[in-house]
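for the record, two folds in this file. i put them one after another cuz i was lazy. first one right below, seq on top, structure tokens after. the second one comes after a little note so u can tell where it starts
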Amino acid sequence: MLAAVIVAGLLFPLAGGFGYVSNRAAATVDNVSAELVEGTVPAVSTMVDASGAPIAWLYEQRRFEVPSDRIANDMKLAIVSIEDRRFAEHGGVDWQGTFRAFLTNTSSGGVQQGGSTIDQQYVKNFQLLVVAKTDAERRAAVETTPARKLREIRMALNLEKQLTKDEILTRYLNLVPFGNGSYGIQDAAQTYFGVDAKDLSMPQAAMLAGMVQSSSKLNPYNNPQGVLERRNTVLDTLIQNIPSRADEFRKNKAEALGVLPEPKALPRGCIAAGDRGFFCDYAMQYLANAGISIDQLDKGGYLIRTTLDPAVQNSVKASVDSVTKPDLDDIAEVMSIIAPGQDSHALLAMASSREYGLDSGAHQTVQPQPYSMVGDGAGSIFKIFTTAAAMEKGLGIASELDVPSFFAAKGMGNGGAPGCPPETYCVKNAGNYRSPMTVTEALAQSPNTAFVKLIQDVGVTPTVDMALRLGMRSYGEPGSSGHGSQSLADMIKQQNLGSFTLGPLAINPLELSNVAATIASSGKWCPPTPIREVIDRNGKQVPLTQAPCEQVVEPGLADTLANALGQDAIGGTAAGSARTVGWNVPVSAKTGTTETHRSSAFFGFTNAMAGAAYIYGDSPTPGEICSFPLRSCGDGNLYGGNEPARSWFAGIKPVLDHFPPTAFPPTDEKYVRGANNAQIPDVGGMPQAQANAALVAAGFRVSVVPQPGSQPKGTVIGTSPNGSAIPGSVVTLNVSDGTQTAAPPPPAAPPLPAPPRLPPIPIPIPLPR
């Protein structure tokens, strides 16, 4: 009673200036007491793949909370016996011990004795491990002053009014540190013995109970003798406090510690996620943007269910590593695979030839290569954006494109080549192509001049906007151009860069993969999401802030474009790689290579999986890349149809049977034939003036090219292009100059001689019977 009166007087002074300070302190105590009652402590968040297998553990303090029924009763007996044997009797404060400690500490001028109950220890540890955010607050939580002791007493008394004894003991065991980075009894049991807290034996429980006194000094790996003596001290108290089990406890004292050869500690963070490290890192960034910060992940005890498909991830990673060796100097490959969908684009796999890690000498990196702007461009894959923009303006995939061997696009940037006038972009083809070609054929064969001519008709601005809509969103970010706040997209438009259709700029490989998913989803863009759901420590789903899906082009356009891209693996630039891996199902695809061969890509999708394989120089000074074998070289010859295509086909083929059968979507006749206002009138055989008038009336501009012909001079032989074209674009009239004489018709073949007449075959007449 005397101790209670003294303590009450110190805690609650009623008058003078000290009373004002005490009132403020009391308010602080009340706030902390509320947190104590709530009892939320830092816990490990677990990130798992689609099968439920762990990818990574995220934590600040390695702690797994468990309920009372999952803690061995012997553990509870041991901790109470050594730390607070009157725990079941007192009301939060052991007044005998407190009064003794108070007198000792007062006479000595400092804190010499503790007298702390489990309630008070819980308060102190909670303030240190949960409430304190700064070094100063952490020092205050353990300061050796009567004031701190008195605050603990008041909070402990409040705690007893709100919680049962079992709740307080369970919270204490879930909170306190046990050394070697372990917090809470469940992780301690796993760290030292590889068992769950419910399965701890008495010797194991006694050892852990003894370590609470000083988890840093009592480390069984550094101080086994000290830990053994402390464990036996705990067993001695149990012999005194539970005489009925004394013989058992005496036998326990003779046992060895029995700890694991080394602490069993879960690795922390994405750095230990192996080939899943890049995916893990992207998932954490995604969650931060969705409303769950990294700090929350490190403390929240969440279950993070991701979309990563282990079969797809393993197959893609193995394929990438087989084509682009992880130890290859200065060259990296990345590939992401996304599941198309109308409501989400789930990220199934994210692989890199680089290992995720901090040892640069072993070719490791933590740079976000698969989802940041890297490399020198995806090359001719960008012709897809020009084609989609042209289709939106009315061009059909059955229309024919002119394929000159050389083309000068007037009014466009990127000029300055030898013989190329200013304000003109000059381009030539890398090989010989027939002319004209249908849009579908041109996508498979990829002649440069056809698409530079097409972007001139479509316009750079609509083409860039189409790239942004379909998924290349980084191009629209302010500052992405490297010139102040200007975006890369705005810079391309401002300079009217016709070269955009040839893909000469760095890309975000994940965004390119998502373009494939957008087209495969009938034109529905969704952000590439690595997260299926997040569950909090109470089992409730956590709402996430995510960008909504958008219908960015008409479904008919996307589905018809998917069909137009269906020839590359059959007779186009990727056909050889497709045959090499035995690919034999429908796939929409496009290859791409930059002019200098410093990066190259393959872009492909089915109705179930979409993605891009991208090989590029990842050194500060990338050079040209050669194929067979893949290497840095002086005069590059890497093409998208080579290693990138082989990576994609070899990575996807083994998991095809995990998904629905592959098939092309239906085409839309509007986008096959072209829009009505895009149809080029049939003017063959008309006089030039009449044909010119018909084309102008249909909304086209006209140019005339005389050609040797046998028709009368001024007669139209044909048009280029024909079928359909961009409304308002130039249609070339090929007009006969009448210089050729019509070839005489071939002589008629002589009549064939009549076949000889054969004598009749006699027919036997049957005799009567």
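(here's the note) second protein begins now
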Amino acid sequence: MRPPDNADPPAVPLLPHFLQSHAIASAAGPSDDWSAWHLGRGRYAVWVVTMQALTPPVRDAVQAACAQARRWLGAALVPHCQRQLHVTLATAGFLDGGAQLPQAYGAAQLSRDLLALQHLPAAPLQLELGGWGSFEMAPYLQVRDGRPEGCTLHGLHGVLAQTGPGLALTEAMRPYVPHVTLGAWSAAWPRDQVLQWMSGLPMQEHWQAAVGEIALVSYAADVLHGPLTCHARYDLLRRRLHWLQRPDWA
């Protein structure tokens, strides 16, 4: 059963979308609910696999499937989501502000991450994408490591999350689950209703993809589900960082 176009949220409070927005904005709107936490800083960085890292046939198929799923779920999702499709590997921190502030991400933190990445095999990621799932706060396309050895999503998450600041709340809520977020649920919909909607999503093939790079991206800390800016790409084979848009400290 498809969500109605004029779906009304149940008479319960909206969920805080920690998993979708990395605990920076609330689901209630673009209000600055976390100003005491981000201390006026503007850009929060995350390590991800972007859709641009996939081969064009796989990228086009994944984007088309996710767009179709978003249309199906319709009003059950938060409207006007501008965040590009991606697979989150690990949170990094704020790109701006003083280095002494909590959750800061500057030259020292980047050097630490690059050193950690050097210890992983110089090989592409082998991914399998396909199948639908949902967290309490967001539906998603499933992503799995295509092989247990070599360079893997879980291996990348392990080294980057271990060295990075992390967000204890989100890490405590669930283990690392690689995924492509479709959007955020617009309300605390009943579980049975969500399962019914998810079961109506179209069946799909599973796509295989070899990915040779990851990316350091950021988003505006006070904009709910705003777009990502790509700052750098890291070549997994050559173990080299290529800057696209440098922060002030780089």
